[in-house]
Amino acid sequence: MVSGATVREFRRALVVLAPGPLTTVQDLGRRRHSHLGVGRSGAADRGALRLANRLLANPENAACLEVTLGGLKVRASGDLLVTLTGAPCPATVTDAEGRTRGIGHASVERLPDGATLRLGVPPRGLRTYLAVRGGIDVPEVLGSRATDLLSGLGPERPAPGSVLPVGPAPAEFPAADLAPVPEPESGVLMLDVIPGPRHDWFTPGALAALCAEPYEVTPHSDRVGMRLRGPRLERARDGELPSEGMVPGALQVPPSGQPTLFLADHPVTGGYPVIAVVRDHHVDRAAQARPGQRIRFRVAGDRRLVDHRRL
């Protein structure tokens, strides 16, 4: 997003008419800056962003729009190719003559000059990714175009009237026009975990308690992390830790005994003990969990903790 920019300044762009509840610019984040106190940030569902870029033959790190619970409305300046991935949502394109058509999910779609794209609320999942061929070409900050909501780094959140320039189209052309991928799960979500670096700060039965019953995703959840409600995890030690490094997927437990699952914009350090860490391949899955949805944890490789009736 270019502050104060007008559509005429760019050959191709997206003009934001309505941003919905939360829309941010995201790529795969900032690498190798933790020693400076800068988190990685980037797409909460990295697999969805990569898929969107592959469909358009973009570099996999090209910047897209991450749209939480739909509501986005944008207008094309110049002829564009776009795709939607992540949480499937109702989507329509209205051309300059007022004709409206629906568009598919995980498919390559044409967005003609002057056409308007509207996203509805996804019936399942939380975050939808809108990619455009050429990528969202806003200025980089520390090597990334990602918006970090915790630190404030990166482009501002799009607002009505924001102009998002689109970069040059890549030399390669899309090899497929549709990707048949599974939708985000709407029932109980199973996530694999490994014991955390401070699991010994908890009672011997705490890790089993974490995996025994579902936890509910509370409304107090965002790109920083998900606050969960479920069985209380009892500590075996008093006091607090000195701050230490955190990673996406860390399950940090404050004195309340209710865990928080860190996501893309998590703090670089934290002082509460981490009982377990969600395996990297399931962090994307966690990022699509909606408030009110239930989550179960399974220690990776321990099938005794799985209730297959709930899968």
From TrEMBL:
- Annotated signal sequence is none
Q: Which InterPro entries match?
A: CT_A_B, Cyclophilin-like_dom_sf, PxpC
Specify the Carboxyltransferase domain's residue ranges: 35-311
Q: Which GO terms describe its molecular function?
A: hydrolase activity
Keyword vocabulary terms for this entry: ATP-binding, Hydrolase, Nucleotide-binding
Question: What NCBIfam families is this protein classified in?
Answer: urea_amlyse_rel
Would you tell me the protein name for this molecule?
Answer: Allophanate hydrolase
